[in-house]
Amino acid sequence: MTKKILILSGSPRKQGNSDLLCDEFMRGALEAGHTVEKVRVQEKKVAYCTACYACRDTGNCAIKDDMAEIMEKMIACDVMVLASPVYFYSIDAQLKAVIDRSVCRWTEVKNKEMYYIMTAADGEKESMDTTLACFRGYADCVEGAVEKGIIYGTGVYHAGEIKDTKCMQEAYMMGKNV
Known about the structure:
Helix 1 packs parallel to helix 6. A five-stranded parallel beta sheet has the order 2-1-3-4-5, with helices on both faces. It is globular, with a radius of gyration of 15 Å. It has a single domain (about 5-175), classed as 3-Layer(aba) Sandwich (Rossmann fold), CATH 3.40.50. The protein is built from six helices and five strands. It is of the alpha/beta class. Helices cover about 35% and strands about 20% of the residues.
């Protein structure tokens, strides 16, 4: 069965380590016959949530930026990939803004297969625990979400360092096996 996959790449660096893993996941998924769209959050205009709660009354966010387009993709996909470098043991601000802004229509995001991609300069998986908890916290709010896979890109700092690790093959195979 062909699935519609949305990759939300939180990497602020184009061709950064988590972004490269997203590309490998996408390559595998495309080869498997799925429809894939990668959104580089850094390239979109997404303001942070101001807690105005206008969405309670209208069902739509009062902030007019690229989030409305991203929200539609989040609702429509079958598979969601969340990818971020680890920033102070958490996800980066770009992806956090997208997650927070989804509050306007969060109940419409349902029944998703969830994959998580994380990269960090630290060489220990444990340094990613809080980042993973952030991803899982979002998934806990998605009705019918099922965690399907995690990539731990440890010990990489400079853009492109991930190319020399087994994570590239893991990401490719994870995408291929969606």
